[in-house]
Write a structure and sequence with these properties.
Nucleotidyltransferase, domain 5; 2 domains; single chain; two-stranded antiparallel ribbon; alpha/beta; 7 helices
Length: 222
Amino acid sequence: MGHILITIQFSSTEVIVQSAKVKIHSLVTMSGKASVGKCLHTDFAFLESFAVPAHYCIVKEIIPMVWKAPTSPWLKVNTDGSVIDGHAAYGRYAICSIAFVCNIGAASVFHSEVLAFILAMEHAANHGWRNVWLESDSSSAILIFSNPSLVPLLLRNRWHNTHSLGIQIIASHIFREGNCCADRLANMGHDIQGSVWISTLPTELHLNFFRDRVGLPNYRFP
């Protein structure tokens, strides 16, 4: 429900314990009734003792997020960008255990997200993959597929060149809770120099990778 700070002043130096308890109880009750915070079901007994109504999280506010595997002939690639202290990195991963991390130095998250899309398409073309499903938790980056003018100026030529690669593209948004592997890879990118291809799945990704493979959800809380 949140934290309640109460300051109580007594008019005399001699305080009767019972009156102090009553005063504290009434003030907590008044403050609690004014609160709009959400509580857990385990808090019910405590709140009831102070006659404070319980406000629970509505179940529909908790959204299960499931990574969806692609169907043939699509190859799905998840990307994510990260910026720490003005330095950007991104990660990219596919369910076939192909992963890529890159530290690109001073840049914005948006720049790193768009660059991840471009490199994914270039890599797909080099390997003869013609149907690529790009997915990111950046809704702003996804907009470049419907509005190319949003592509950063320094990446614009490279972006337009990807349209001559003969690749069919699907672009979709997923919340961060469903993009955990790419999110972890992006964070790992800050600890490397340049770019690194990863052929063996890092230990840090094992649990999230397993959850994706078997379709287990992560949860997005309000």
